[in-house]
Amino acid sequence: MLSKRVIACLDVRDGKLAKSVKFVDTKDIGDPVHKAKQYYDDGLDELVFYDITASSDGRAIMIDVVERVAAQIFIPFSVGGGVRSVDDASRLRLAGAEKINVNSAAVKDPELIHRCSEAIGAQSVVLSMDVLRVTASASIPSGYEIVIHGGRTNTGLDALQWAKRGEALGAGELVVNSIDADGTREGYEITLTRMIADAVRIPVIASGGAGRPEHLYEVLTAGHADAALVASMVHYGEYTVSQIKGYLAGRAIKVRDTHLQTSTK
């Protein structure tokens, strides 16, 4: 059995670590480079870095922040927000990111997933999906809709259908982020996560809603997720990465040994 992964999400706005609730009321809460190093030292498995305004502002990702973070950690590190081309993906890989995350640009140009997969390998391409619960309809039969531009733009695209298409186009992983649960610390959206995890063969990372270690246990078991993203619960110092992984190990969830971190660079 593969180990389940604990992944910290760093949302960055104007070079500062930021956090929101349901994609609104965003506040600056610290330095992303410092937090990345802190979580790495505490046994984090992976890190996800999102430039949360790059897509909506129509600008490139802040490569300097990526380089500074990559210099501090030696675990898989993915970057998203503003990735619009193979050139963007290649520049991020050169800056130190092991994986790139595509989201808004991939919805507008689905073949971007295929082009990036061909250029840097499927294992390095993550499709991030921001998902909103809606009333089921003929166009959105699952009752979950893809939204883009940091939750600002509805697409009319069914989340389950998009997940399957992303896999077919060459994505190596999916991040399933529930906008309804985002920042609430009341638990992941289990129904959504399980629905997508059961429909694809690639790893699914659950995102949005983690507030207690029990929430990770629930989404990794009942939600069928391969990994769980955390943000608020570690950013605000309520739990450490080692405490979370210790809890999961105590509940018979196979996790990576925090003392055996090795470089993947």
Structural summary, described in words:
With 265 residues, this protein is an alpha/beta fold. It has a single domain (5-250), classed as Aldolase class I (TIM Barrel). The chain has eleven helices and twelve strands. The protein has an eight-stranded parallel β-barrel with strand order 1-4-5-6-7-10-11-12, surrounded by seven helices. The chain starts with a strand and ends in a 15-residue tail after the last helix. The relative contact order is 0.16.
Structure summary, number of beta strands: 12
The ordered H/E elements are EEEHEHHEHEHHEEEHEHEHEHH
The portion of residues assigned to helices is 25-40%
Structural class: alpha/beta
The total number of structural domains is 1
CATH homologous superfamily descriptor: Aldolase class I
Strand content: 25-35%
| Low-confidence region ranges | 23-27, 259-265
The geometry reads as globular
| Known CATH architecture | Alpha-Beta Barrel
Distance between the termini: 25 Å
Provide the residue-averaged pLDDT. 88
Salient structural properties:
single chain; 265 residues; alpha/beta; TIM Barrel; 26% strand; globular
Topology:
Layout: E1 5-13, E2 16-21, E3 24-30, H1 32-41, E4 46-51, H2 54-57, H3 63-70, E5 77-80, H4 86-95, E6 99-102, H5 104-108, H6 111-120, E7 125-133, E8 144-148, E9 153-158, H7 159-169, E10 173-178, H8 190-197, E11 204-207, H9 213-221, E12 227-230, H10 232-235, H11 241-250
Parallel strand pairs: 1-4, 1-12, 4-5, 5-6, 6-7, 7-10, 10-11, 11-12
Antiparallel strand pairs: 1-2, 2-3, 7-8, 8-9
